[in-house]
Design brief:
The chain has helices at 24-50, 62-79, 94-136, 140-145, 161-176, 179-186, 237-243, 270-287, 292-296, 300-311, 317-328, 335-341, 346-352, 365-377, 390-393, 434-445; strands at 21-22, 85-86, 88-89, 92-93, 192-204, 207-218, 221-232, 249-252, 267-268, 355-356, 398-401, 406-415, 422-431, 468-474. By secondary structure, the protein is α+β, with helices and mostly antiparallel strands. Helix 1 (24-50) packs parallel to helix 3, helix 2 (62-79) packs antiparallel against helix 3 and helix 13 (346-352) packs across helix 14.
Amino acid sequence: MAEPTPAPALASTADTTPYVSVSWVAVGASTAANLFAGLLLAFGFAAFREKKPLLLSELIMILPVIAIILAFAARKLIQNSEGTRTGILFGVDLVKSAWWTALLSGLGYATYLFAIDYSIRRDAAQQGEQWVGFVMKDDVNRAFLRTLDPGRRGSISPDNTAQLQAEFGPAYLGFEQTDLILLAKRNPGACVFSAGVVKDWLYQPGQTKCAFTGTVKCPEGSFPIEFELRGTDGGAKADAAKSEQVGRQWAVSFQPGQKYFLQDKVIRTPYGWKIAELEVSADRFVRMPGGFFDLASSGASSRAFLYQAQIKADPDVKLLEKALVASHARVWSFDLPLAFTMTPDYQPYMQNWFIRLRDGSEPSPELKELFLKTWTENGLLLPGRRIKENEKADTASFLTVTETAIEVRVPCEVPLFGSGTAARGRLVLVCTEPDVLAELKSLRASAKPDEGTASPPDTTGKRSFRWRVVRVESDMKEVKVQPGPGGPGGPGGPGGPRG
């Protein structure tokens, strides 16, 4: 008997694998990880095209941290769900992919940031040390050029002082008188610089700014310094071609009147405090009311008296007494004191010996004659009286110590004869007291920079020093004056070298 044919049956429509919902924690982990990786790719491509570093907000690093935390939490939730949760979506393990994407991209970007940080700090430290090295070697021109934007350096030779003075005028003059430059000049070959750290770097579009620290030690004491460095991405083409450097080009911050010393951390040796005391004493000698500058701008009779009282090496005491008696007797007219003080050696000395060029050499007969007329008619002025920009740029005195004298050069203006303009100059004072020189020599020999003090000794300021004005150093070159409401030398715009 034949077997009966089985009836046809439909296949089951039920899934062989039961439905399991995807963990939203895993989805969140994957979203955070992929968002971070996508942002890195997008901003990285833009940074590559613009040839700038990829520096995103620090807040973006929250994304990989969140992704790793969520991935870890999702793994635990799935393991504890007894099969009711899964981390796989469309065949992709969200937990594993989120974990590794966040970990690798986060570590990669952190490594990149560390490399950028290291590069910036290394370059800034090298440039900062090199700049201080120029200062310590008294290479003012190269040090000044490093304060300019890279694009302005290419056409200027660091050996052409005249060009720097002509083109940058007050800025160059002010840079020469910064505290760090003057310290190095007073202690040639005796300054030692210890580099500190690069701190507080900040990237702005096209430029990186940071602060560089260090300490300069010399017989005068220990002087902590800090200054800003600016790194320009790509540099200037002219400067890069000249220096054969590519990449970030650095400049040192400088503003008129800038101080590089951290004044509250400076400690001076007894030698350093004595140097500071001498500078203050010389400055007060010429600037105080009734001092040199007051008398030099008060009239021909006062200037003739100055020659006898403060300039002449062997003043005639009796003649000075007569002049002072005349002054106290209120008969100080133009003729009477001039008769007392206008000796035959006065004008020849002022013309032939009192004026010297900035380098100390003898000027031409024409400049000597111009100075005598200028001195006789106008005298000398404090900085800023005619050249308005000098009020801030040309203010610092400069002290040097030789075997036979202490010399202090005080800024002044030479109001040129027959005009409302002036030339820049230095009034040179000397102190030749043997005991002062011997004391300075002893203090310098025993100076220990690490054992200085932040406050001066009790004896500072209690001694009077004998100063004599020996000469004026000036190139006698006219500096243009922009007249203001008060006329020449009044509140007008700043002048500049005659071009």
